[in-house]
Each structure stands twice: as C-alpha cells, then as structure tokens.
Design goal:
By secondary structure, this protein is α/β, with parallel strands linked by helices. Helix content is 35%, strand content 23%. It has a domain at 308-404: Rossmann fold. Helix 5 runs parallel beside helix 6 (176-186). The termini are far apart.
C-alpha cells in the first residue's frame, strides 16, 4: 500500500497506464537509449481523497533547460491568460503598489499583460529556456523551484505578495507541504493563492485519461483541495470551472477567516459527492472504459492501414506520449505527428519514438485520416485545417470515445 503525499493516509491503486517516459522530454534519435521510464499508475487516498500518481519522476528530469512546452503556442491559451491577468488587474491588484508572483510562469503568457500594465510582478520557473522567453517579453523571472527558502528571499526583496498564482503547474509539485509553506511565507495577510489545474471529473467523467502523465502528480477536486488547504493552514474560499484543457477548475485559497467562502464551493462539493468522485466503484468503471478506448483506437488504426489508407497524428502535447505508449502505437500505425512548436520538430515523441514534424508536413502528406491528439484545441485546429476536411480528410478523436469525424 502506498502512502498519500499530502496526509500520509493509505492510497489504493485505481488504474495502471503502463511503462511511460517523461512526457515532455522529446528526444533526438540518438538520445533514445538514455530515456527514463516509470510505471504510470494512479491511486486515491482513503483519508483525504487526493488522487495522485503512485510513482513520479525526479523534478530535475521533468523540468530541465530544454523544456518543450510553450504556453503561448495556442491562441486560445493566450486569450485565456490575458483575461486572467485583466481580472487580477481589475480585482486583487487594483490597489497601491500591488505585487503578484506566478509559480511556473513558463514563457510569460500571463505575466506579459501584468508587466505591460506596470504592476510589480515576478515569475518563478526552473526551466531556463522558457524563462528566457518570458524575460524577452519584459517579464521579471527568477529561475528556480518555488519553495519556502525561495519565498523567504522573494519577500525580503519585494515584500509580501497580494496574489500568488499558478496554472497547470501546482499539480506538478510532488511536495505540496513545501509549496504551501512557501505560499505561507510570501502571501500577505489578506492575499489569495489561486491556481487552475486539470479537474478530476474531466479526467474521469469526460474520459480525458491522457491528462495522466508524469508531470501531473495530482488530480484535484474541491474536496481534496479543501482537505489539503486545511491541513496546511489555509481555507478554500472559491472555485470556478474553466474550459481550458477540456475542463479545469480554478481554486482560490486564503488565510482562515479572512474571506467568506463562496456558494460555488458548497455547490461543487455537493456535485462531486453525487458524481462519486471519491468512490472506488467509479474508478473501476473508468479503468474499464479507458481499456476499451485503447482497444478501439488500435483496431481503427490497424483497419485504416490495412485498407491502404494513410493516417498521421496532429499535435504533440504531452498527452500524445500517454496515448501512444499506453496503446502501444508506434510508427507502424502512425508514421509521424505534426506540431507547431519548433522546439519539438525533428525530435521523437517520448517512449513511442514517433517523429515530430512541422505542420507543413501535414499539407505535403495529404493523409486520409489524422488522429487529433491536441483535442483540447479542436475548434481552433479544425478551422485552421479546413482544407483537410474539404478534400475528404477525416479526424479521429478518442475522448471521450473513439470516433471519426
């Protein structure tokens, strides 16, 4: 039996997605021999209900100087994070000399707007390459992991933070106690700690199983976040559902008694109970459904190739690694995938070693079918690739089930 990273309670396994690599570590052909793998299995704590990976890669492996994910690569992401910044500027930061810190600022997609508004800010990110991209946009960045010692130094230099924010980052931090001790050291008495992350009901209820990969150590719910917050001296005061990545939730924490929890918190807790998001039977059904998707997708790709038709992959987010490795999909079924991120082009999808090419290769190949791995950007991609559909090309999706459009 595993122990919970948050409360040390017993954790029972709910699904095993097999041997998997670090999902954002796109390798060159001559680097294949050095890949690291883990057993990508998920469990749920019997005590606090936190859903989490049973094993994890060292953070130095997951976040390195050539980290391939760039948050600004999507138009929908840029729009979302500009709206987040505007919301802070009109709310928590609408005061004299405010200060905001973003944990995992990536390429500055959110803080760029804050910087342009002339508001004091700091991004904290251990990946030097993306931090450099943020700095080039005028964002002030500290290249390190966020923890209590870093927070103490930041406060000594800049004073307390009115807002500490994280997006698609907080669920990546294995040691939540160390992170929350850092938040405690840096946050002002009346400040907020807000973070938005993939929602467990998206992963389970909407069958977005490819959201499970080595960087996503936790799969939050309002119930588990509330338990974690209370354990480390905070209070969950607000929640908000977001459309990003197929369905996320923004959680807002504050010091106890400083803010009145919103009605949305109670409503989400009640809904989670009705959905059975802490019930073992719900996860048993999910595991069976995920296995069915694997069977259906592999059979479909095999049938397409047997008919002499061509199929490639479209988009190579970290999710691509989970799907191809879990399903055993290699170049015999999918000769290549295309992705608009230059840092990924010319490299291989981790583990499955499918080549990643530029979007021009998609036009040149004129495939009959395309597996849409970047399904969370479906509308944006289909509008961009209208010519593909117009000439008879068909999209393959696998969330929440395998289907051809």
């Amino acid at each position: 039996m595993y122990s919970c990273r948050v409360c040390n309670g017993p954790v029972r396994e709910v699904i095993d997605l097999g041997r998997q690599p670090s999902a954002n570590r796109f390798v060159l052909p001559d680097e294949v021999e050095g890949e690291l793998f883990l057993r990508l299995a998920v469990g749920m704590c019997d005590d606090c209900t936190m859903v989490q990976l049973l094993e994890d890669m060292p953070q130095e492996v997951r976040y390195h100087d050539t980290y391939r994910y760039h948050a600004s690569g999507s138009a929908s992401h840029r729009k979302h994070f500009e709206q987040v910044a505007r919301r802070f500027l009109e709310g928590e930061l609408a005061k004299d000399d405010p200060f905001i810190v973003e944990i995992g600022c990536n390429d500055g997609v959110m803080l760029e707007t804050i910087a342009q508004a002339g508001v004091r800010h700091l991004g904290v990110d251990p990946a030097k390459d993306v931090a450099a991209l943020a700095a080039a946009k005028g964002v002030r960045v500290r290249t390190t992991f966020f923890d209590e010692p870093a927070a103490v130094e930041i406060r000594a230099e800049h004073g307390p933070a009115d807002v500490i924010f994280g997006a698609n980052t907080i669920c990546h931090v294995s040691d939540q106690e160390a992170l929350l001790r850092g938040v405690d050291a840096l946050l002002s008495d009346d400040g907020i700690y807000a973070f938005e992350e993939p929602y467990l009901d998206t992963v389970v209820g909407r069958m977005a199983f490819d959201q499970v990969y080595d960087e996503h150590i936790y799969y939050f719910t309002a119930r588990s976040v509330r338990a974690m917050a209370e354990r480390f001296g905070f209070e969950l005061v607000d929640v908000e559902e977001l459309a990003l990545h197929g369905g996320e939730v923004r959680y807002v924490l504050a010091r106890p008694g400083r803010r009145q929890p919103t009605r949305a918190v109670a409503e989400m807790l009640a809904r989670e109970s009705a959905l059975g998001l802490a019930e073992p039977a719900r996860f048993e059904r999910w595991a069976a459904d995920v296995a069915r998707v694997r069977t259906d997708l592999v059979e479909l790709l095999g049938d397409i190739r047997a008919q002499g038709k061509t199929v490639v992959g479209y988009g190579s987010p970290a999710k691509t690694s989970t799907v191809t490795n879990y399903c055993g999909i290699g170049t015999e079924l999918l000769p290549f995938v295309v992705d608009s991120t230059p840092a990924k082009q010319g490299r291989l999808v981790p583990g499955s070693h499918i080549p990643v090419r530029s979007p021009e290769a998609f036009t040149e190949a004129q495939p009959d079918y395309a597996v849409l791995f970047a399904w969370n950007h479906t509308e944006e991609i289909m509008a961009k690739e209208k010519e593909f559909r117009d000439r008879g090309g068909r999209w393959i999706l696998y969330v929440p089930e395998v289907r051809v459009l």
